[in-house]
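Exam review. A common question shows you a sequence with its structure tokens and asks you to describe the fold in words. Practice with the pair below. Do the first one on your own.
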Amino acid sequence: MAAKAGDNPDSLMSLCTVFCLKNLRRTMCYTGERNKLCLRPDVFLPSEICDKLVNVYMDLVYTDSNFEAQDGFFQLFSDPRSTRLTRLQLRDLVRDKDVEAIKKQVGKLSVTRGLKSCILGLYATLLKSDFLLRLLNLGGMQAVVDVEALLKPLPALTSLDLSGVYLPRPAFLAQWRDRLASLVLYNVDLSEELISTVVQMSRLRHLDISRENQRNSKFKMTRKILTSIVQSLGNLVSLDISGHIMLDNCTVPQFEDAMGRPSIEPSKSSIYPFQELKRPLQFLGLYNTTLCNVTHIPAYKVTGSKNEEQVLNAIEAYTESRPELAHRAINQLFDIARIQHCSQLLRALQLVIAALKCHKYDKSIQVTGSAALFYLTNTEYRNEQSVRLRRQVIEVVLNGMEQYQEVTVQRNCCLTLCNFSIPEELEFQYHRVNLLLLKILEPARQDESIQRIAVHLCNALVCQVDNDHKEAVGKMGFVKTMLNLIQKKLQDRMCDQVMEFSWSALWNITDETPDNCQMFLNCNGMDLFLDCLQEFPDKQELHRNMLGLLGNVAEVRALRPQLLTSQFITVFSNLLDSKADGIEVSYNACGVLSHIMFDGPDVWSVEDPERDWVMDKMWDAIQSWDVTSRRNINYRSFEPILRLLPQGISPVSQHWATWALFNLVSVYPSKYCPLLVKEGGVALLEKVLELDSSQPETKDMARYTHTHTHTHT
């Protein structure tokens, strides 16, 4: 059998790192004075492990809703004798005291947006030492900072990111022309002076002069400028010119572009300046330019919007530091998955998952990412996905539902969950997903489509699960939430899918779960039942769901006295004549009455209608049902039915129970004959045949059911 997408397990290093971070005091740390987190004295951590610990810690704080930030974590890395840090990607969650703790030993420092205040303090400390700073990211630095003065004392720089920084006098960058290997000038206003300075940097291997978009850009990317960059920077392996206005004379004529199969050979390039390259580039950013549409591009990896490969490259390249571009690329992936076909499914899913984790507070990423996940997990792609990959999707969807209360995100996430087998595929997050869905359904006036999907999911989650799960969900407020929805629909005099799904969910969650049945009664469920019956007399599906639920309530002996009122008995008796949904409503009404009758005449406290009259009506109803009827019902256990067999106090209850078994084993022998044998039903049918109180018609059905079951097991 071929491996499915996403089957590769996490590395042992990754698993151990996450385990240690989630169990710091049980692994590498102990609790010192004043509950301070301290590194064990016998622990020495090399740079590979320290870098991994810090960077994974930041990821967990950002992406794992169950992971709590540890006060004092960064202080663990304050002593270079026991810990070694070489490269960090610091984020907003790092405080000044954290930077203070690690400043003694950071060998390479990359600082993202949102941390510019604390970099200055660290920078001042570094200048006082003999430290050689080689990598610096000042992207987004405020205009009030004199970047030239800040950088001049750092002669050893080999990598510099000045994204979005104002450079009024760019010539000062020539100071590093013989050292810089990487220069990022994303969203920097380009000028002839800046370009002439850049092309002097002969050691550059990575140059990024891209823009977010073409608006407000006075600079035009000409053939002459591109040619100058290619000719002057002979060591270049990576170039990004995304977002620039390209002049038409950069590309070969259309007839020439269409010749031959796509090639990455520089000599065949459809973009004139790149014909000067000595070898194909490893990376070329052409996103939001016209150049990405040509046929022959001399690069192994190209960002653009021409095809799926370019779009995925764009998501990969821009997710971490340029969410505004990643959002656009994910939107294009969404269109590919929705309208065409996604051929790189594993890569697409992994990139979208990474983007959603990285930017859980970014509305645009969350909206487009969750929409893309819906199409990437639907039936068309399902067989290509491993269990592990699908679990990753579920986790990131639940993260989105937890962190972002936006209508479109919530709808997309709920729709995506509908692509999974419920409850099986959601069981590993069962408690969490139920809590989130109930939270969605709390508001008095929720978006109609979200409400419908969320109730459908709630119903599916409590169908065919064990009683422990149902009891746990009941304690979360499930019963109350469903009854509130029903109450609102009643006020609006509307019987829609939300109303029907809510009753169906209550039917499922009360199945063999007495605590939930009690909650239903305590929350005035019977009043809502009567109101719905009166308001919607012709809604067959609604009646079936309500009577199925009341059948569950009637199975609980301690609760039956609450059903034994003149009003309820009259309603149940009248429903015996119902033809709604075949025999289902009549059958369930008779089931409710059968359990009540089973308690005997001594507890019958109702004067009108009389017990005998109700029993006669039950006999008439049962006699009218077609025993070959196909059923709209699903039994996990026969126990509530079987307990009505070996008794003589209520022959009509025994008759109803025998008819139910007779029908089910006749119509669905492969499913129900083994269940009847497993639960000891055969011996109880023999008991029916032995009892003098059993009616002849009941014995005939019992005899047939007994024989039929033996034949099919």
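Now try the second one, then compare your answer with the model answer below.
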Amino acid sequence: MAPSTTVADPQPSSTTDSFNSNAAAENDIRPFFVLHKASSGSKPTATVKAKRRIESPSPKLAKKFEIESVDEEDGQFFSTLRLKVFETVWSKIENTIQDVLRDSNSKVFSGVHNWICESFESIRSSGALSLSEAVRSCPVLSQPSSKQLFTALVLTRNLEMVDDLSTFEDLGLHLKSQGCHVAKLSSMDFSAKNGVGGCLRGLLRQFVMPTIDVADVTILASWYRENGNQKNPVVIIVDDTERCCGSVLSDLILILSEWAVKVPIFLIMGVSTAHDAPRKILSANALQRLCASRFTLSSPAERMDAVLEAVFLKPCSGFTVSHKVALFMRSYFLCQDGTLTSFVKTLKIACLQHFSLEPLSIMLEHFCQDNQLPGEGTGLLTEATMKHAFDLPSVTRYPSEFTICYYFIRGHMLEELLVRNKITRSTCEMLPQFLLDLQRMPNPWSIVVLCIYEAGKFDKLRLLDIFCETLDPEARYLKYFAPSAILNSQSHVSGRNSVIRRVLRKLRDLSPAQLSSLLKSWESLTAEFSEINEKVMELHPFMRNVEAAGQRPGLPTSPKKHASRSHSKLEKELKAMTDKISAVIEFMLREYMKPVETVPFNEILCFKNVDKLQSALLGDPRGRIQSDLLESHSILNCLCCSQRGTTLLPSVHDTSIL
């Protein structure tokens, strides 16, 4: 029986109730309001609803709805899974980058700590002070040497401060782990408005008590002589000296130098341009109080090469980029601010774009796990993923190299699905094997790139330039390689500025010592890859001939004539050696220089959409607003507007644009 459509009339309310309801409505501040509501037309009755519930859909329509529901659930599941895999992959990349930067700075950090220890021992050897002497306001010693403030000038060679912030944070943590008392001041603390009192309050809050509001250096001296703090040195880090107010920094140096014996303070000043930068901002009296030592961090280009090698050329996450994306990232790094932070940001956006665009990117989680096929035992190789894998452009380009097929298991039956060519049962499990080959592929390629980089160091070539060129899948030397052709060509084979051409030309000018150093580095790089290592080991006899020709003693009867013969003999051996090295380079490029874009299924791990990356970094706000307005129905999820296509109804509120 259908439910009744009769609705009982509401009971009349009193005037007081009406007043209270109106007041409550005025005070009812909701977080949102309905701006656009679909017109319902004629109001449906309850009887009609009951009839529609009783009606059963046709079998075809029910099956269609069921398939769409399952596909939507699968899509949500894989989208969530891809986000989790992205977080895993990026965490691995980020940890690798942090380890590389920590290792690149470890030598300088150790040097700074050793300098602090040696200087601290020299101060303590002059004699310890009692508590009353330490907190006395007047200086204990009047000799000029007693007012020297030990200072470390750390040259960062960065144009922007963004990279230096993390560097000095790591330096402070390193010194704290060694037992030093560390406080860090930024250029904002050295403002003319706050004066030197603001700097002293900042130091006391970090050393003594966070809530202290007194600028009295005697409090620091009293704290240092109590509770056993005098056993360790006090370190003050100023991360950006060139942006500090010179007069405030000079005043702080003068005050701290008066207490140099009472409180052994070590000042670490970060400079980005040159070691003599403090001369331009400090007063003459402040400069006389500094006993400076110099330390130099690795350059941004050197750090970039180290990060590039660890992330892309050594086992890390499996994620990589295409030739065009690498060129854009290099251009963005060089033309924007030249900081490693900007490069890491670009890399993260590229990685995120890759996981949002490529469904099979979820397999990257298993690429760094040894002895496991990607997707094996995870349920990722479903019918849909197999079909998508064999429809990838890198697969359809080479139909003759392997059979295009995919499979799925339903119960205990293996069903083989024909896509393009006739297949056999033995070809059904080729996808996991292809993925495993793709997992192992970068190893010889990265070894070749690193070998070229070692040779390019003698010509001051950067790994970033070599990496971009060796990623090019259209490079002609990959198909038609000849060292003489590259040396004599201007632009037809590898380009006027080709790094391969520069490396081969530089080989002619290397000395025997440089050739020996190159041979040792190649031997170390190829130790785990026997095919290339054998070719490198064949160069040792030629290297011994070069060394013997250079060490041959002259004859006493005709020294000039014999010296000329010895020189010609050395040149002959050097030419034979460089020819052999060129032949080894030819062998490596011909056999193992296969960029990732030339192998099947490379879309799984290689990001190629340079337009998406450029739009995300450089931005196109006008075009983005226009496209969002044209697709507003998909953003608002409005049913009535979606039925009208991309045309908006007049009933849509203007604030919907926001």
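Model answer, second protein: The mean pLDDT is 75. The two ends are 48 Å apart (CA to CA). Full marks require stating both points clearly.
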